[in-house]
Write a structure and sequence with these properties.
Blueprint lengths: L8 H14 L1 H8 L7 E5 L2 E4 H12 L15 H10 L3 E4 L9 H13 L9 H16 L2 H10 L15 E5 L14 E5 H8 L3 E4 L4 E4 L28 H11 L4
Antiparallel strand pairs: 1-2, 1-3, 4-5, 6-7
Helix pairs in contact: 1-2, 1-3, 1-9
């Protein structure tokens, strides 16, 4: 068995969850890897040592065979990184400190870009209208992915129960990183505002009990009523959200107890 046999994104997510739980130094020591310098797995705005994650993922996918050690493969983009990219994950190249990149920094950059885009031009209203519709389609999610979630959740928001289809969106639990992440198990059907809270880490799902968690700062608002509420699950077990994906989002949201 070799690294070419690792093909389960769920195993990679379990390795990432273990990394977050153990901490970088302990994780690398356990699996016998040094710190990455050139290639990093990027998930939820955080950077992970790609080879160590991949080696641990082998053990999660093939428990009887165990994890891969650093001697089991070599090279960079031609080996581990390409395999991770083939599974839909994003690889980042560079020497920046792992776990240094955050979603908030990216959002701040985008806000600055938007605010610097120029003054209002009445002649561009029609173009803006087209862009607005395009943004709605993009926000609702890829058509096929959203359609699958609408069927899986019976056309109702997984958190609020809202059945207004026009405001229901396909939310990725692990952010979109290619077609592989458009899996029903990596999605939740959420009302527009709840999707935003989910992406900002102000709403998360406790993965063991499937309970909605709301950030303390939001509990005095109308969203506080959702705190502790059970997630509405699809009737078909195969369509239910991945526990590993929910756990990863939960840990990274900062809402884990």
């Amino acid at each position: 068995m070799a690294f070419i046999d690792v093909n389960d994104p769920e195993a990679v997510l379990k390795a990432v969850e273990e990394f977050d739980r153990s901490g970088r130094d302990a994780f690398l020591e356990k699996y016998g890897f040094g710190k990455a310098r050139d290639y990093f797995l990027l998930i939820n705005g955080k950077r992970y040592d790609s080879k160590a994650i991949f080696g641990a993922a082998h053990g999660h996918q093939f428990p009887k065979l165990g994890p891969l050690g650093w001697r089991d493969f070599n090279g960079g983009a031609t080996t581990v990184e390409r395999k991770l990219e083939a599974m839909g994950f994003r690889i980042e190249r560079g020497n920046a400190k792992p776990n240094g990149a955050t979603l908030s920094v990216e959002m701040s950059d985008m806000q600055d870009e938007a605010e610097a885009s120029g003054a209002f031009d009445p002649h561009s209203v029609e173009d803006a209208r087209r862009k607005t519709f395009a943004a709605i389609v993009q926000r609702q999610g890829q058509r096929g992915f959203r359609s699958k979630l609408l069927r899986a959740y019976g056309g109702h928001c997984a958190v609020s129960g809202s059945g207004v289809v026009e405001i229901l969106e396909a939310a990725h639990i692990v952010p979109y990183q290619g077609p592989q992440t458009n899996h029903v198990g990596n999605g939740l059907l959420l009302r527009t505002d709840l999707h935003t809270l989910f992406d900002l880490g102000l709403l998360a799902i406790e993965p063991k009990a499937n309970v909605v968690m709301i950030a303390a700062a939001m509990r005095s608002t109308e969203y506080g009523a959702l705190h502790g509420k059970k997630l509405r699950l699809p009737s078909a077990p195969r369509n239910r959200p991945s526990e590993a994906a929910l756990a990863h989002h939960y840990e990274n949201s900062g809402l884990a107890l």
